[in-house]
Give the backbone structure.
Amino acid sequence: MTVLVTRGGGYVGSRVVKELRAAGSPCLVVDSLIHGHRELVTDADLIVSGEELRGWLQARDEWMRNSGERASTSLTSFKCPCCG
């Protein structure tokens, strides 16, 4: 399952991506790069705009429909573990 990391172009986010990648998890980084740095995102796909994110999600949805796969968690039905 691909892990979505927001603000992955900053120091902390880029370290999180490195740890996730070391554990074998593919990552997708969403960062506007206003405060982050493109060169810190080396191990993951980087999305810097809402249009790119929308395109990525649509392509993923299309792939899932065509392959018969089911998402493990729907973004619309996700509940925060601490505040519901």
Summary: DSSP finds two helices and three strands in the chain. The helical segments are 11-22, 50-67. The chain has one domain: 3-67.
